[in-house]
Amino acid sequence: MAVQNPNATTATTRHGALGLSAEDLLEMYSHIALARAIDERMWVLQRAGMVSFVISGQGHEGAQVGVMWATDRQHDWLVPFYRSLAACLTKGMTARDLMLGLFARHGDPSSGGRQMPAHWAHAAHKILSTSSPVGTQYPHAVGIAYAAKLRGSGELCVVSIGEGGTSQGDWHEALNFAGIHRLPVIFIVENNRYAISVPQRLQMAVDDVAVRAAGYGFPGVVVDGSDVLASYEAGREAVRRARAGEGPTLIECKVERLTAHSSEDRQEKYRPTADLEAARSKDPLVVFKHYLEQVGVLDEARYTEIHNRIKAVVNDATEYAEQAPWPDPATVGRHVYLEG
Ligand SMILES: Cc1ncc(C[n+]2csc(CCOP(=O)(O)OP(=O)(O)O)c2C)c(N)n1
Ligand SMILES: [Mg+2]
After folding, report:
1. What is the CATH number of domain 6-320?
2. Ligand 1, atom 2: nearest CA belongs to which residue?
3. Which of 86, 176, 222, 313, by CA, is between 20 and 30 Å from 34?
4. Ligand nearest 193 Cα, by number?
């Protein structure tokens, strides 16, 4: 691929210093933009009464793509949470996979249409199914990391949660165990400052969740999660530590929740307008686009090409899932009751 600006690949740029090429940047951007486009389509479908429920990853995508880019996406594990749409795409799930889940169709790789939307999972891509109670994914991830260490497989596990979920006992137990056994796990906290309507100051008495890592014997870092490259850099160091046997890292990504908590919520009721406007100014899609333009990696022609392709992918996935067969009602009790 031709790079318009010769400086774009030199170490004088931020991405050059991180060893990222123009191709890497465009692929990362495409993942963020695709995640956003799928997410926006999901809201339209929900408002049109075609699907039951949406919980959004909008505003979290830069942190997710940045950190995941530092991992081995074939070899490593991901234990997502409900906002991890962009992380799941980066790990290998497709727009069709995600739409099949939203429409609750038989072919949904997450659960065969049995779970509520946003319980992402994909066995072949090593994405573990999340349970609905927040926090439970953390001990699951630690179990995966423990197994990887015992087997000497060289795999690591990335797990995500929101800042509100860190009030759960499971979260602390997971960090403690992983610290003791120096497990290859990367703990991500996507801190968007709200747990539904509860602001961070009513959830914890510290400004940064990351400081808690010290209590469990490993580093905790704070990163601007609207900055894809900063997220990648933090992810890269956490991956290095995990592979070197140095144990876990807690990465707190300060992100913005650009939508209401879910399609059942109205954030205008508890979130000041100024806060919402400030959040929009940190939209990772826009921030990253500006960076790519500045370093000459993205021009108008390439932008149009990427977004036209994404539009076609989202349209295809929507139509594909809408027409896909429903699960067989005779199997409704499968995985719930013993089948005779
Ligand atoms: C144990 C448990 N308590 C409550 C809920 C309901 N619930 C779902 S999401 C959520 C808010 C979580 O906030 P946070 O961890 O900050 O993540 P965010 O949604 O902001 O990304 C709550 C209270 C739940 N799913 N599980
Ligand atoms: Mg939150």
Report:
1. 3.40.50.970
2. 133
3. 222
4. 2
